[in-house]
Amino acid sequence: MFNGTASGQRASTFLGVLSAAGIAASTGCGSAVSESRVSSGAGAHNAGSGGTPGAGNASGGAVASGGAPVSGNGNSIGGAGGSTITQQGEGGISFGAGGVASTPAVGQCVGVLRLATHLDGSLGRATVIRLSDGFAALPSVQQPAPLVWHVGTESNAWQEVQAIEAVMGYLPPVSAGNATEPALIVFDRRGAVGLENSFAASVVHSDGSVAHSDPNISLLSIFDDGRSVFPTASSLDGKRVAVGTAHGSADDPHFALLDRDAKPVGSEIALFDSGNSPSFKAFALTGTAHGVLASAIDDKTGTLHLLELDSGGKPVSTLAWPVPAGTDLPRITVDPSGIYIGFRASQGTVNAGLTTTYRVQDGSLLAVGTVPVGQSWLVGGVEPLIATDPSGGEISFSRLRGQAIDQLAGKFEGSVVPSADGRIFLASQKSDDSTTPANTELTVVEVACGPTHE
Length: 454
Fold this sequence. Notes:
The chain is built from no helices and 35 strands. It is mostly beta strands. The relative contact order is 0.19.
């Protein structure tokens, strides 16, 4: 359980003040991605959002000036004024103070923005979430007190927010709002007799004040004996939050869509009805630009069910499709060009490790590409973007052209932060042992990738 108590709001440490100026940051398929974390039918509580990072092809990026250096892989950020971002050696990049980044060259990925701050040590290794105008760093571990999170804008203005009263949570907190007006939603079981099998919520605002949902209204009916799953997700604009639950023998996958004040937007929705003995896999919620995408597999029938809702809770797209034989749990990504579902061939099969990716189209699945072993689908479009699975903290990008794979120059540090606005962001966290408890230096770098051909 999560809890917190404290007072007020205070500014966090700034590292390398950056300025941002709008530029055209890429050509080719200017798309974005938001990725889900899937949940199996048993196990401990699962927040279900964020998961393995996804990324998007950068478009409309920003320019960074100044900033402290990032070590490793030759990716240095900082330097004398007046220079532009350039490629140095194998993947090296440099951000010059006041420099303006040009459109990435053909066959290259370059850095175009750097943000950095120190995080409170109580957050542990923070969960970094993309907001429409910045980022939120949320606690990934139970905090003794207070409940604290960090929010930063793309101009590198960061603030640390603390709840001014105790906030008890049954799940990890969920981000809402944006970097200008952030909020944090904390779900908890209602305590009254007869109401304990449902969720209420507390909303922590940017000034630390806390508002509680109506205790007489159930936000989501739940059943939990320690084996239920609880996926969550937020829309990119921060105006919608979703929370779901399922239990392998007692509760079909169902979820609720809420506004940023934790008020219901419509009624609870079940993805499917399996009868008296539920059995499911891969229940996930994925944030879209303004709504949410819910997905789960009915284990009895081997059918993947998918439902996308808009901000008003109305269906945008639906799917019921048989899961290909001999594949692992699906990996689902969303970008402006569509919804993509990747099925990786299981070990022991002929194509073990290869991932066939499909796009949802008119209630069916259309195969659009095969991703090799050790790489992940990121975003669709004319030249879909894929990335190497991070090894030793290093990541690089490629584009698919039919059956060909074109490697793009540039190697970078960090994990990709899912984003639904057409941009690639990499976040890295390094412990600062000079403080007690040890603080964490968070760095977020935007990467823009060019096309493979003129």
